[in-house]
Structure prediction request, 154 residues.
Amino acid sequence: MLEITMRISRQVRYALCGVFDLAYNGAGAPVRVQTIGERQRIPYRFLEQIFQRLRKAELVSGKRGPGGGYVLARPPEQISLRDVVEAIEGPIREWERETDQDWPESEYRPDFLWDDLADRMSTLLGGIAISDVCREAVRRSVVRELPTGLDYQI
Prediction:
């Protein structure tokens, strides 16, 4: 039986958790990276570097000063997992090409396979929006922090 293990970098995991947290807990209000880090158990300084990349990719925008923090730059329905992954790692189709230099060409090897896998991974990740992750989190009862000042009663 063929076993395939895909490793997702810690930076990508943290980026996905950070964007999810903004969508799930942010309610459209700015959220400080330190707050996200505390909720997600991610080192603040590392998360700040990741959010700089997300901002450069125009997935989040920042507001300085009191009451500042980050917000999603687009609705969560318009941010895919691929958007987040590529903001951190670069275009998926280029991942394998970086290591190709160390691997001599061979006409006996199915090199087309790597491009096919990259295409499928890109399609899969592109088809999952952050809003889909939030819906699944609600379904699975992931704890949600209600915005301050909200009074929720049953």
About this structure: The longest strand covers residues 60-63. The chain has one domain: 10-139. Residues 149-154 have pLDDT under 50 and may be disordered.
